[in-house]
Every structure is written in C-alpha cells, then in structure tokens.
Amino acid sequence: MSIKVSTSGAATEAVQRHLDRLVSEKFASRLFAKDHTLWGTAAEDESSKRLGWVEAAQVSAPLVDEVAQLRSDLAAKGVDRIVLCGMGGSSLAPEVMTRTAGLPLVVLDSTDPGQVAESVQTDLERTAVVVSSKSGSTLETDSQRRSFVAAFTEAGIDPTERIFIVTDPGSPLEQASRAAGFRVFLADPSVGGRFSAMTAFGLVPAGLAGLDLGAFLAPVASVVDDLEADSPQNPGLVLGAALAGGDPVKTYVGVVEQGTDIVGFGDWAEQLIAESTGKEGKGLLPVVLGQDAPEVGLPIPDLQVVRLVADAAAEPALGDEINVSGSLPEQMLLWEVAVAVAGQLLGINPYDQPDVESAKVAARALLDETPAPTAPAFTEGDIEVRGSDAVTANQSTVLGAIESLLAQLPEGGYVAIQAYANRLGLGELTQIRDAVAHRARRPVTFGWGPRFLHSTGQFHKGGPRVGVFLQITTDSKAEIAIPDRPFSYGGLIHAQAAGDASVLADHGMPVLQLNLTDETGGVQQLVRLLGEI
Ligand SMILES: O=P(O)(O)OC[C@H]1O[C@H](O)[C@H](O)[C@@H](O)[C@@H]1O
C-alpha cells in the first residue's frame, strides 16, 4: 500500500473509538458500492445523486486520449498558454495537480479587476481557455467567459477555436455554448464539485496544461482496493476517524506540508473538508499552516495537526498528530473517503452546501440596489476602517481595531482573514496571517476572496459561530468592465465582500473591514503595522 496514515496520542484514541464499528458495519465496501444510506435519511436525497466519485478515475479513462489530442492540436497552432476560469470545485483540483507537476496553468478564480486584466490581456495569440462550471451559472465564471469571448473577438481570433467548456449535461452553459459553436466536455453529474478532481473538471485543464493524465490516474486502481476494504488497515477509515472521531471533536485541522512533493494540497483540501462538513453548527475547518506557523507550537487543544510527509511509515506521527503520505491522486481519493467517514461521524450530509447561497444573494442584492457607500469609521494612511460597532467603537488606529476584533474571540474561536484582492500581484499580504496568529494564539485562516466563498465560505456561515472576520478589500488600480453586464469587476468584488460581511454580521459574528484605497501602499502599510504586534 503506498498510502500511509500514522496517528499518535489523541488521534489514535479517536481511531480506536470508531474503527471496529466502521469495519463491522462495512462502511468502506458500502461506500464504494454507492450505498447512499450511510449518512442518514435526511441526506439520502442528495447522497443518492452524488456518489459517482468513487469510480471517477475509471469512468474518466476516455478523456486521457481526447485531451492529449486537443493539446497537440493546440500546440501545432502555437497555442501553449492555458487559462482556467472556474471557482471552487471547478478550479482547485487542477490547480494542485499542475502545481505539483510544475506545469504552468493560469487559474483565474477571481473578480479582482487587476487579476482579471492580467489573465485576459496577456499573450492572447497563444492562449486557450477552459471555462469550467458544473452548474453553468456561477457569476464569476460567467463574467470571465464573457471577458475572454470579447478579448478574442477584438483580437481577431475566433473564440470557439480557443475556449473550451467543461460543465454538466443539461446546464445552461452547455446549451448556450453548443448553440454558439463551442466545444463542450461533459462531466459526470453524479459527482459533486469538490469531489470532481478525477472527472473532466480536474482532467481537462490539467491535461491541456501538460499533465500526463494516464500516468496521473494509474495509481488510483490499486488504491481503490485499499480504500474499499472493510479492514482496520483501511487508511480512509483511519484518517476519517482520526479527524472527526475525537471526544470532543477537534474543530480545526492544521494542514502542514512537510516533505511531501505535493504543492498546495491544503488549498484543495480546504474546500473538500470545510464545505463538506461545515454545516448545522458543526464541522471541521482546515487551517493551512507553514511548518513554523505559530499555531503549530502553541497549546491549542482543538487543533488537530496533520502533516503531509514523504513517508509516514518512516516518519510516524508524534504527540497527538497525524502524518500522511502518498502521491497526489492517491491522497485525493484518501481524503475524499476520510471526509465521507467524517460526515457520518459528525452526523451531517457531506454532499450539500446549504449556506453558500446566502452570500451570493446578498451580493446580487447590493449590485441591484447600488447603495451609497457608507463612510468609514476612520481612515489611517491608505486604510479605511469599517466594521461591526463592537469592533470599531472607540478605535482610531488600524492596530487598535484589529486588537479590538481579536478581543471578541469567543472560547474555541478562530480568526478568518478574507482578502478580496489580486492574489497574484499582492501575495505578500499572506504575511499578516502568522502575525495575527501570533497575537490571537488561536487558529487563523487566510482566504482570497471571492475564491474562499466557494471553499471555506460554507463553514464560516454554516459551522460553529465562533469566527471573527478580518475582511480586506482594495480599490484596485485597474478597473475593467464585464461585457454586457450593468456592473464592473470592481463593483462586483466590492459587492461580494460587502454581501458576505452582511451575512456574517447577521449571524452575530464580528467583522472588521479594511479597505485599501491604494492597493500597493495599503498592503505595505498593513504588513508593516502587523509586524509591530
Ligand atoms: O462549478 P460551479 O457550478 O461553477 O460551482 C463552483 C462552486 O460554486 C459554489 O460555491 C459551490 O459551493 C462550490 O461547491 C462549487 O465548487
């Protein structure tokens, strides 16, 4: 078996608490036989439509040659820059697949005007675009598609030769795209977005970017044998029970890449775990941590550290931790099984996302109403400060407001930093995560908006209401229109931020909003200020 899971201390106790029952009730073989009754009657309607992922690699085999052929056809025309437009489950898997393989794939999962402009206005003559959306109705993806159609047309390039669609059969995107002459790759509708790595959603963009899909899928068959076995050695049962079987359950899953050759696994796992489990006031929240992150060294009893290592047999877990090793496709299936197990142990339906819609509705309402902007509570340098009254009252400095936000942390709480900004151009902003964690002494997540709305966003609104939220927006220098829409990208991203903030506030959770009026200067100011705490 090339997947290895090693547990220690409290994680081992969690496994011991549940493993015998999971084996005797044949959880694993029933899962791979697509038994939709594993998560209780309330979940059956959804789970009966969502278990195709257990055989996705086999079902997707025909895509291997089809995508390779398209890649060589494009290469023959000098087209070698691949852009992927898609959110959440339609982009996170191909991103980690190509990053791990060291292949260039431009992932456009943003409405930040600067990031959109950079993706759309670069090297069009050698660019092909994959537009991926399972529902075919995601606003960000639709906006990006419009921008690329317009840009190709303007450049005298036929968009139908360069834009390829991945969607579910019967979606509005399928119908409109076929009618307009675009090539469409249909995905398996019985696989949910966050479980879709080995369907057309993962494979088409990654294969066009150069991933050898045959080699990628090859290890999956033998790993299925291990994961469907009703055995106490089944690594999926062990990992699922270790993550969700504690008494009490540890809410935070600290994912540390330490010696693995997988790059960016945590970003993919975040959506899988948080969106699958974060609901009904329960759930597991992944926290992507560097090896030296403050949380790793602090006594945080509700943080379960999981290290992705090169070989978990040679490096067994210490303390109360979990070590995991295996190649990327093996681990993708491993974690999908573990989440299925965790869903049952937590008593939730892992296949729905009931709270994602609320932020979309709030953003749409703001776009329709276009209310006048509210005045900031105060401004310091390039940073305008707004937020919940309890956070901004009596504050006159950015640091004071951040301290005030952290003072609102309830027991068992966490901080979510949510940056609606150009993640390619303003990457240094991530530096503030460790500084905030150092100060808060609690788990701190860092998400780029609107990307995280399709990932950890479900947990923030549907999980335990113990988060405090530091939202960062920018008045981006580059502003661009969305073709045939009454709003611009800048208007959209601000509405998305404000919409989500209003939903969080309605749920009674503290929000501090920092708007950077000059994005470069504001980031520098914030990084400098947080260096002081
Ligand atoms: O693939 P799409 O239909 O465009 O959906 C993209 C994303 O949208 C929503 O936010 C869902 O909560 C995600 O699970 C999904 O991955």
TrEMBL record:
Superkingdom of source: Bacteria
The protein's enzyme class: isomerase
Signal peptide: none
Presence of the UniProt keyword Metal-binding in the record: no
Catalysed reactions, semicolon-separated: alpha-D-glucose 6-phosphate = beta-D-fructose 6-phosphate
PROSITE patterns in the cross-refs: P_GLUCOSE_ISOMERASE_3
Annotated pathway: Carbohydrate degradation; glycolysis; D-glyceraldehyde 3-phosphate and glycerone phosphate from D-glucose: step 2/4
Keyword line: Gluconeogenesis, Glycolysis, Isomerase
Example GO molecular function: isomerase activity
EC number annotated for this UniProt entry: 5.3.1.9
Gene3D superfamilies per record: Glucose-6-phosphate isomerase like protein, domain 1
UniProt-listed PANTHER family: GLUCOSE-6-PHOSPHATE ISOMERASE (PTHR11469)
UniProt similarity note: Belongs to the GPI family.
This protein's name: Glucose-6-phosphate isomerase
